[in-house]
Every structure is written in C-alpha cells, then in structure tokens.
Amino acid sequence: MGQKLKTTGWVAAGVVAGVLTTVSLQTVARGSLAPLPLEELQQLAAVFGMVKSDYVEPVDEKKLISDAISGMVSGLDPHSQYFDKKSFKEFKEGTSGRFVGVGIEISQEDGLIKVVSPIEGSPAFRAGLKPNDLITKIDDTAVRGLSLNEAVKRMRGEANTKVLLTIFRKDENRTFPVTITREEIRTQSVRGKVIEPGYAWIRLSQFQERTVDDFVKKVDEIYKQDPNLKGIVLDLRNDPGGLLDAAVAISAAFLPQNVTVVSTDGQLAESKSIYKAAPEFYQRRAGSDPLRSLPAALKTVPLVVLVNEGSASASEIVAGALQDHKRATVMGSQTFGKGSVQTVRPLGPDTGLKITTARYYTPSGTSIQAKGIVPNVLVDESAEGSPFAALRMREADLDKHLNSGQGPEDKSPEREKARDEARKRLEEEAKKPPQDRKVPEFGSDKDFPLMQALNQLKGQAVVVSKTQTIVENKEEKKEN
User: Fold this and answer.
1) I want to staple 321 with a disulfide (CB 3.0 to 4.6 A). Which of 10, 172, 261, 405 is the partner?
2) What is the pLDDT of residues 327-363, one digit of tens each?
3) SS3 label, residue 317
4) If residue 67 lies in a helix (H) or strand (E), which one and from where to where?
C-alpha cells in the first residue's frame, strides 16, 4: 500500500479552493480506453463547427473545447471538475498549504476585511498587522463591496511584488498605509494549547502536506508543558478536509497499530483499498514514520472529537474511525456527509481532470456519503442553541450529489421547516449591531461546544442539544 501511494502521488480528501473533494493524484496513463460512441462524437464535432462558423462573433476554439470538457464533467456530480491552468494552480496551492501572498487569515466584518490573525513570520506579521485590524483598501481599490474571495485574489500575486494595504486600527482610532512585499506563505493548519491543567485543545483547520508534522510538533509542545494530560479535545469543526494520507496519520496517532481507518470502493481495482493505522499507509518517505516521536500516552488519553456541519471528507474520516473504534466520544453536530473519492489526473503540464472514482467507508463498513457522521453527543453551537445550523449546505443538498450506495435517502420535511424558522431568525439577527452578532472564537472560554467537551472529559454534566434533528438515510446495511 505504501508503494501504491508513491506511484499515484498524493491522496486528498476535502475542500480545496472552495470545492469539496476527496482526491488521488495519478500521473500514470490509463492502459486502455472503452469503445467511443462515434455517432455522438460526430454530433459534438458538428456542433463545434456550427458554433465556430455561424456564431454572431468569432469564438476562441480552445475555449470552446475547454467549456465542452467542463460541461461534460460538471454534469456528473458536484465534485468532478476540469481544471484549466489557473484552477489547477489554485488546487495545488490549496493542498500544499503554500501560496504567494501577504500572510494573514481574514474574515469579513461590516463590509470590510478584518485581520483574524497574521501568520507568524509572514510579511504581514513583520509589517506589524494585528488581529482585528480592518483593511479598507487594497492598492487603489476600496474593499467595501468586494467579496472575501475577490479580496484574497487582490492580495495574492507574484513573489517579490508589492501590495499597498490601507489599515484602520479601531483601538487606536487611526488609518494608515502599509506596503507589503508578497512572498511564499506556508499556512498553519494546526493550533493548540493547554486550556487548563490536565486538558488540551488541538484544532485542525485543514489536512495539508505539513499538517502531520505540525500536529506532531504541537503535541510534543503540549506534553512538554503538561506531561500528565487527563484529556484532549480534537477540534475538527469547519475542517473541510484535505489530504487523505494526513487524515490516516492523524487517526493512527490515537488508534492501535494496524486497525482499519477507512476503506474505499469503486469500479477500478486501484479504488478498492483499505487504509490502516500503520506507517506504510501514510508516510511520504520510505522508512520515515512522522509519528514516531509522539508520546505513548496519546494512544490512551481520554479523547473528545468536536465536529459540526462544516466538518467534511478527511475530517469525517478521522471522526468516523475514532468513533467506530470507540477511541473517542464525538460531540457537536452531524457532519457534512462528503464520502466520495475523486482522482486527479493531469491532462498536460498545467491542466487536469478531477473525477469521482470511489466512495469511502468507515471501519464498520458504513458509507457516510450524503449523510455524515452522527455525534455520540449532540451539542449546540451556543447555550441558546444552533439557530442557523439548518441553513448550512450539506452534501445531500448539492445538485447531482452521489447517493450513499446503501439505500434511498429520506428527505426530511422537518429539516425544511427548521430552515424556514432559521431564515426568520437570521433576518432578525441581521438587524442587530455588528458587535452583537460576533461568534465566539474557537478555543476561547466562550466557546460553548469546547466547554461541553471539557465537561465530558471531566465526567461533569454536559448541556446536550434539545433541538437538533438527525438527517437520516433509510439505508440497508452493506453486505460484506
């Protein structure tokens, strides 16, 4: 299995550049092609000719072909995709955790871009940007009216080029310009700390190439600070996924040697795989186990995994493996339900095809596609409940989504009713001043689900959700 990972490149499971995916990059050519439908191909050629000759104005031939490929692939399911030069570059940046930019985590606040945190050591960090700084202009463009993605694109660019940011610092009540030189940034996908003596919090925001190494460093750092941990909270909320081998490694850090973490099944022989908690299933270099330095206590320390509707794909693999092996108590909300595998095959030096090739299954053989992981303990986002959770998109809401393969889906009328109620509450919430609409930061003492996770680890009373409903699939168990 380890050799297989080396041959195919890397395997990913999650959200990259805004697209939920589980991906295996393969550079080997297919050995044979199925017979081609000649009559339909003749029609395609005829349409191409008519558009080229009859359309009201000249068209770009390459764009026509690119659009035809995009339409063919996008009609399959929400996760299959044709990558042109630009989107292929963005995809690879997303999984590597590297990009060229200024190095800040951002969010939107009152139409402006807010600095959540400068990445340590980045150009923005060295320039003195601080959390809660507001960016009002990027070069000569006012930020108000730009989407978050548009703002990100304007701040990214080529290495060693400059960008001028206009900053409003609220606590000093002043506006000032900062010129920052872009450079390659390595994102931090792992955060963590000792919350209180005996209890630690480790957050994974995405599964990237550096996630496993960063996870090991963070765990070692935490155990040096407190060698006698009584419990750990592994926080996977809003983690859209990423690299599958990273998900297998994180699972293996907590599980006994050689137990099954996840399995995949599809038409191709290479899609029928079982990934286990052993180095050959996640190591990137022969003979090098990235988990070798972890403290032995990590295998037995009491563990809670926090998830929500934004936990997808690779994070669902980890949650499902730890839940099935009864290694952790999963708490929070039902997860996204992204349980399909996509394979990325280069079509040339800078384009590629991402196509769904398999479903993945938890160790018990359960498909979570279009369903998700159901927590052992349902916990709301706040003491007041989870008023807007019903509005979040899940896999089952996506057009043309793949079914679970284990029976028909049950479209719950209760969920539609909950959505209507959530929309009304959202309209009321929007009338409040921005400062009254702030969501507590993950990892803070105002983080309600985290406080409930700590209570669970301490054997204290947990405030269980009284309002959440589970999105069920009427399924038959998979026959093995």
Assistant:
1) 261
2) 999 999 999 999 988 788 888 888 999 898 899 899 9
3) helix
4) helix 61-74
**Is 399 annotated as catalytic?**
no
pLDDT at 117 (0 to 100): 72
* DSSP designation for 100: E
- Report the distance separating Cα 82 and Cα 21, nearest Å: 13
Catalytic residue among 276, 338, 354, 371, which?
338
Over residues 470-474, mean pLDDT: 56
Our answer to whether residue 338 is catalytic in this structure is yes
Q: What is the DSSP string of 73-94?
A: HHTT-TT-EEE-HHHHHHHHHH
pLDDT at position 108: 75
Q: Where do the CATH 2.30.42.10 domains begin and end in the chain?
A: 99-186
Backbone angles phi, psi at 112, to 5 degrees: -110, 170
The closest alpha carbon to 313, from 221, 230, 248, belongs to 248
Specify the CATH architecture of the domain 190-339+360-458: Alpha-Beta Complex (3.90)
| Whole-angstrom distance, CA of residue 137 vs CA of residue 144 | 8
Length of the chain: 480
Question: What digits encode the pLDDT tens for the residues 370-382?
Answer: 889 999 999 998 8
Q: Where are the beta strands (DSSP E) in 131-186?
A: 134-138, 141-142, 162-169, 174-181, 183-186
**pTM summary value:** 0.76
In the residue annotation, 217 being an active-site residue is answered as no
- Calpha distance 336→398 (Å, rounded): 11
Which residues of the chain does CATH 3.90.226.10 include?
190-339+360-458
Give the pLDDT of residue 20: 32
Helix axes 211-225, 244-254, angle to 10 degrees: 30
Instruction: Using the predicted structure, report yes or no on whether residue 9 has a pLDDT greater than 60.
Output: no
* pLDDT one-digit tens code per residue, 96-112: 667 888 988 787 777 78
Out of 80, 311, 313, 465, the active site residue is 313
CATH superfamily of 99-186: PDZ domain (2.30.42.10)
Alpha helices by DSSP H, 256-381? 314-324
Contact of 264 with 358, CB cutoff 8 Å? yes
Catalytic residue, chosen from 133, 239, 265, 324, is 324
